[in-house]
Amino acid sequence: CSSVAPKYVYTPLNHLKDGTIVNLYGVVKFFKPPYISKGTDYCSVVTLVDPSNVKLTCSLFSGNLDSLPKIYKVGDIVRFHRIKIREYNGQMQGITSGGFASLTFDGTVGAPVVPRTSSRVYTFMEEEQKTVEELRIWAASNISISGPAAKLSGVQPMMFFDLTCQLVGKAKVDGSSFLLKVWDGTKCPYPTWKVPVEAKDLEGEKVLLHQLRNLVVDILVYDNHVRLAESLKIGSFLRIYSIHTKQASADNEDVSHIEFHLHGGTCYGRGIGVLPESNPDVKELKAFLESVDLTESQNMEICMVLFHLSVYCFAVLTDHQDLSNTELKTITNSPAPQQYRIRAKLRSYKPQKLHQSVKLHCSKCNSLQEVPDIDDFDIILHNSAGTAPNPELHNTSWYESVTWTTQDQKKREIAIHFVKRDEMLQHPEDTLLMIEGGTVKEIWKLAKRFKCVIPVRSTKDDLELLDLSAPFLLQGNVKYYGCKQCSTPKPMKNLSSIAAEQQPSWEPTEIAQVLGIELLQYVFIMKFTLVDETGTLNAYLFDYEKFFQIPASEILTSNFLQQKMQMTMNTLCPPGRKLGDLPWLECFIRSYNVRDAMKNQVCYQIFDTTVADDVV
DNA sequence: GTTTAGGCTTTG
């Protein structure tokens, strides 16, 4: 007896006869992924169609899940051996018989023809390959394979869809329902419900579940799906068929959320399929999941890097064209207040050290103060480091906290609170963070990498700002201060209202406002001594940014801007020149009265004047 | 040896 492979004969679906056992090919038009039947076996119902355009629905049973056809989507192609044909309700029906075996192929034209099977031995040769390829081409124009697939990012409040995803957690809920926690790397655009379960009932990597909590959705599966769901392995890739999204709201919620249900029963192919890692959709999903930017870990990483570093190394143009020039003598002889246009020379100015011209101004109480020394900030930070971060204030609805202890001898406790938007952490360049226990150097570095940094300390029930001699906010190179007189610091949680905005811009003025801080403005204050043929006049420059085209807030931390300002002054008032050789300036001044107890004095201020770009 | 389901319109 020779061991030649038997020659199989395949019956077209329009030639099936009651009571026969046949071999056949078909394209999957509909299927129910294997589920636990009410009997002793798994069951899978598969409807096939072939170029004869006859449909055949098969009920396939097996005690062994693996020996049922591995169908993943409509359009897959199957080859059944030894399937029994019976007539039922006037139609042919296929049913497993002894020795049933199946091969399944991806139905995509051009995809490799690789059979999915549990049989160790099967015949598959050139002729079979040709049959599969022909069926693929036929199916391509005769079967609609556009299933109701969706990504979590594409779900709507009321739909049924198939989800390809990874299982990251599961939990018992009650006898008739079971919870699956899954993700596909995209974010559901609606708030999603969280099914309350006992911590001890939740299976899955806790750290991962926490990390992914904004991307994971809870799917509640019912009745006949429960037993299969229980048997699923964490980490496995699933396709869950015909998930129902439902909009609902709980009593304690202001906004409605989306619920994901896999209802009981199997109509519409409702069920759960486990996909192997070799599945092309799984390969694609895996690659995507690996690329998902977990901003949280990114933020954390940047902080770690920064902290490790610090541990281990230790002619003047004008508006107002209607005004004509006025001689200085006329101005000094006239009562205030008035506005003038003048043509004069800048004989001298104060302060000579330009950085000394920068002050902080409160527009509410009109006070001026020196910019605090950086050492003051260091002292304040040092003093507040005595207050340990309060763990009860960590991880609230609007920020995410990380803490650690520095590795140096000081063993400082550091807590960083990243403000979230819409439950999600943002990219570092958009993130506002609050820090406890940092040094000036560390805070400075953080301010360069993150949108804003606010140094805080813990109290019993909230985070609070430090002493207002310290900057209450750092953004890039700029330190923002509040007026001690006019500020009434409010709880840090007021920031959450900004965090809830569509796209928080984190403007210092807005932050200051919600925190009850009267923001101090950086200004240049200078005294210009102006002369013309008729006399001399001292005029003050009070300028935020217009005169030099340099923001006063940035000059202290920029050598480049300091040089630019020095060059401007050297052009307006070249050192070592005789008066006659100085350039003429045109600018606007206004006179005003300053009264004190003794006398009334008239002062002059430069206004609405900008040094032209071509002057420098 | 038998039963399971028999897709057909889902919803807790």
Automatic annotation (TrEMBL):
Belongs to the telombin family. It is found in: Chromosome, Telomere; Nucleus. Keywords: Chromosome, DNA-binding, Nucleus, Telomere. GO terms for cellular component: nuclear telomere cap complex; nucleoplasm. One of its GO terms (biological process) is telomere capping. PANTHER family: PROTECTION OF TELOMERES 1, PROTECTION OF TELOMERES PROTEIN 1. GO terms for molecular function: G-rich strand telomeric DNA binding; telomerase inhibitor activity. It comes from Catharus ustulatus. SMART domains: Telo_bind (SM00976). Residues 10-140 form the Telomeric single stranded DNA binding POT1/Cdc13 domain. The lineage of its organism: Eukaryota, Metazoa, Chordata, Craniata, Vertebrata. This is Protection of telomeres protein 1.
